[in-house]
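TL;DR need structure tokens for one chain.
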Amino acid sequence: MFRKYILPLLALAGVAFAIFAVVWGDKTRPTVQPISDAPTSPYHSSVAGSGIVEASTEDISIGTQIPGIVSKIFVEIGSNVKAGDPLFTIDERSIRAELATRHAAVQVAEATLADAQYDFSLYKPLAAQGFTSVADLVKKRFVTQKAEAQLLQAHAELNSSETELERLTVRAPVDGQVLQLKVHLGEFAPVAAMVPGQSPLILFGSVTPLNVRVDVDENDAWRVHEGAPAVGYLRGNKKIGTPLTFVRFEPYVVPKKSLTGDSTERVDTRVLQVVFSFTRGDLPIFIGQQLDVFIEALELP
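>> reply
TL;DR here they are.
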């Protein structure tokens, strides 16, 4: 008896679920308000573009010329350093041992040369008085010249070891700030060319001032003139903005990289990159962030 009611009950349950799904899906969802309204251009005629904040030296990837174990790190993320300041050092014990050997070789060569010069100084007056042959004097001169050459070679090898020791300490190429630090004590630091796709050990650049690299669509490139003023607003908060100073055009027009993720972007679009600069001061703007940039431009015909 119970079985003959199963199918009607299941049918009623299905109808009830369908009604519930339709009613629930028909509800009006509350509109999500944006955190900040989109910025607007302050110019009568302008060209808009997305910009990426970068170091004024561009981002410098620091690596090592000699692979090895990292023994010392002199900086941390955010450290401001001067050109020539040490960043990190590769284990230098083997080079220091070799350097000690080179110093000893120089001392031996100096002693050998002094001995040869002394012999030559004794034979020279004897040869003049005829007490020894000219051939012996020439032989002593050759011995002295050989000792001089050996001393020069020893100094060259010493200089080579000192250069290798200096190369084990990686130094800052310019004044700037450590943006990323991917090297740690005790880790093996490879030469970047040896490992394809290897991340830089240190990402470095000058942050005074900062630059903004703006992509201008090739269709609007003719409207942007050299020295044009511009203004940039931080993505997500139009209240954080700064005037921008023209720096240069990048002469080569490049394919556009998708920065906004908008599905309407065309992959075949090419862009003119325009570089501007600004002083960060107290603005909460960091390298790698996006800015909405408006550039004062020529009027459309």
